[in-house]
Amino acid sequence: MTTGAKRPKRQTAKRTPPKAPPPWDPSIVVFACNWCSYAGADTAGVSRIQHQPHFRMIRVMCSGRIQPGFVLRAFEKGADGVLVSGCHFGDCHYIFGNERAVEQFEKTKEVVKLLGLEEGRLRLEWISAAEGVRFAQVINEFTDQVRTLGPSPWNGKRQQSVGRAAGQRPTTES
Amino acid sequence: MPELAEAAKKTKAWACYDCGKCTATCPIARVGGSYSPRRHVLATNLGQQREIVENNTLFTCLTCSLCDRRCPAQVTYTELVRDLRELSHGHGVEPECPHGGALQSVMRMMAKGGTQQNRMGWLSQDLKTESAKGQVFYWTGCTMYYDAFFPEFQVKTLEGTRSAVRLMNKLGINPVVSPDERCCGHDLLWNGDRKSFELLAEHNVKLVANSGAELLVTSCAECLRTWKVDYEPFFGAKPPRIVHVTEYLAEHLPDLKFDTDRAAGTGPDGDGSRGPVRVTYQDPCRLGRHLGIYFAPRQLLEALPGVELSEMRRSEAAAICCAGGTWSNCDRFAKQIQVERLREARATGAQVLVTACPKCQVHFRCAMKDPNLGGEIEIEMRDVVELVDQAVGQK
Predict the structure, then answer these.
(1) d(CA B232, CA B193)
(2) Which residues from A are below 8 Å from B330, CB to CB?
(3) Which of B3, B43, B83, B295 can pair with B48 through a Cys bridge, CB separation 3.0 to 4.6 Å?
(4) Average pLDDT in the B252-264 region?
(5) Are the Cβ atoms of A111 and B149 closer than 8 angstroms?
(6) What is the pLDDT of residue A165?
(7) Separation of alpha carbons A145 and A7, rounded Å
(8) Closest by alpha carbon to B111, among A20, A153, A32, A9?
(9) pLDDT digits (tens, 9 = 90+) for A44-100
(10) What is the pLDDT of residue B236?
(11) Which chain A residue has the Cα nearest residue B117?
(12) Mean pLDDT for the stretch of residues A150-171
């Protein structure tokens, strides 16, 4: 055989009954501050702590930077959930940046509520650089929460994933 | 460029004879901005698309329409700038929003739809409304979003909305206030996003048509402009009559029974101060220059017992706008315009600055927060309708 292996015929696929739609994985945007939460994610990574991988992380210098516009834009572009994270109170690298983050977050939450989006799609968490386990735990919890809520109305995948098997949870290494 | 030639034809830009009155009038240029409407008109006539798209000054325009008024060749620059913004939007140019694009995102999400908004939370127990069918439709606009988004300025635009419904109840009308209302699309249209605007327009026109309303009343000057002018191509066979709440109340002025003792006795704060309250009126650009409604709000204010109207130096067609029209153009020049306008309002000796557009309130209240000017420009702000509601009292 010099032409390489032949592709198997597709007969097998025909015989199986119609498959259930593929399990749906949410798209989550995580905003993390440079000093605590992003480092916390790093800790989770180097410690090889398992967690669900369905999020994109956006690093900002301080959680106080995360204004409503960022979060709302994420939802507009189809994010199913947004997690805002920063240093614990008193630990902020910029002394009071996370207090600003709370103010901004409260405003965002009000607008999200008005828009009729489920509150569970938005979450604020404080994660320090040492809390790798906690990071993984928060991510798992939040991903499951968003998964039960289903796709956001502005997620382009909404149409295809109707009738998906809820609660399926593939675990991959971080 | 065919688009530019089309825009020039539509807005009569070709008639420009380069006198520069527009730039001399422009509130932005007058406070030191390098913005020049004339340059855009000229570039349009010469077909210089790159100059327009790449120069990135298009979103500086307040679209306040003051230059349109002064133009001897009757070029409608405001329409032109909107067309040019649409053109730039196609090239991916977006305004630099001072709020991080939050409000634009909210509007686009509304345009896409898919959720049931919780926009009825402001309706208090005493307000009687219909949710689906009725003769009169009350178009609330997005005041609940503004109040939620600007808590730091103590913005209370919902008060005006509540007052409007309360007054309509007193006139014996239970207006339709729909939970399915969406943003009118004004800001998206003026930011060049016509696609999203059209989605909103179609939804809203259908909503009002299904309610069977013959009259649409709104408290927001921008919603009014959008409904009256920009929704025209979307209307079916029988569009409703569209009026601003001040026009509506002015029509029903004889039916409003003012509580004379109460209104004359206390200031609008209810602080117990005696004597008439002096107020001054800020003409919203959409209500005034865009639609020519100057008289109705003044008629209302003059009819109120215990309220004395004193005009600012520049009022009616010459009024200066609140400098924040479409959530796209807040900068130091806008701030300067707001501060000057507030000084003008204070110079009338008025205790209250009255306006008829929620956005004027948001922007002026923001300017008042200036830490360096302190109390120099602070003045109480109310909506016209709030004052009318107060004067009618419990009767």
Answers:
(1) 18
(2) none
(3) B43
(4) 76
(5) yes
(6) 39
(7) 41
(8) A153
(9) 999 999 999 999 999 999 999 999 999 999 999 999 999 999 999 999 999 999 999
(10) 86
(11) A116
(12) 59
All structural domains of chain B:
2-90 (no CATH), 102-251 (3.40.50), 257-392 (3.40.50.1860)
Give Cα A74 distance to the centre of its chain. 11
Counting DSSP H helices and E strands in chain A, the numbers are 5, 4
Cβ–Cβ of B106/A115 closer than 8 Å? yes
- Complex confidence, ipTM: 0.89
**A7 within domain boundaries:** no
pLDDT in tens, B152-164: 888 889 999 999 9
Residue type, A122: L
Q: What percent of chain B has pLDDT over 70?
A: 95
Residue A168 resides in a domain: no
The strands making up A28-33's β-sheet, listed across from edge to edge, are A55-60, A28-33, A81-86, A122-126
**How many domains are there within chain A?**
1
Domain containing A58 — which CATH number?
Answer: 3.40.50
Could you tell me the pLDDT band of residue A129, with boundaries at 50, 70 and 90? very high
Q: What is the mean pLDDT of residues A118-124?
A: 94
Spatial contact of A116 and B118, defined as CB atoms under 8 Å apart:
yes
**pLDDT at B36 > cutoff 70:** yes
A67/B contact by beta carbon, under 8 A: yes
Neighboring chain A residues of B105 at a CB cutoff of 8 Å: 69, 72-73, 75-76
Chain A residues with CB-CB distance to B121 below 8 A: 114
Q: Is the Cβ of B144 closer than 8 Å to some Cβ of chain A? A: yes
Is residue A158 in some structural domain?
no
Tokens 């306040």 belong to: B64
CA distance B113 to B198: 13
Is some CB atom of chain A closer than 8 A to the CB atom of B99?
yes
Chain A residues with CB-CB distance to B102 below 8 A: 67-69, 72-73, 108, 111
Task: Assign B46 a pLDDT band (cuts: 50, 70, 90).
Answer: very high
Q: Would the CB atoms of A107 and B149 count as touching at under 8 Å?
A: yes
Residue with tokens 């999400």, as numbered in its chain: B109
pLDDT (mean) for B67-93: 91
Report helix, strand or coil for A60: strand
Q: Which two tokens stand for residue B59?
A: 């979103």
Beta bridge partners of B282: B355
Q: Average pLDDT in the A5-14 region? A: 58
CB contact under 8 A, A72 and B151: no
Helix (H/G/I), strand (E/B), else coil: B99: coil
Average pLDDT over residues B357-371: 91
The boundaries of the domain holding residue A81 are 25-149
Residue with tokens 């010099």: A2
Convert A44-67 to b/e letters by CB count within 10 Å (16 or more is b). Answer: beeeebebbebbeeeebebbbbbb
Name the residue in chain A with its Cα closest to that of B114.
A153
Q: What values do phi and psi take at B214, rounded to 5?
A: -100, -15
How far does B376 lie from chain A, in Å, by closest CA? 28
Task: Tell me phi and psi for residue B385, to 5 degrees.
Answer: -65, -35
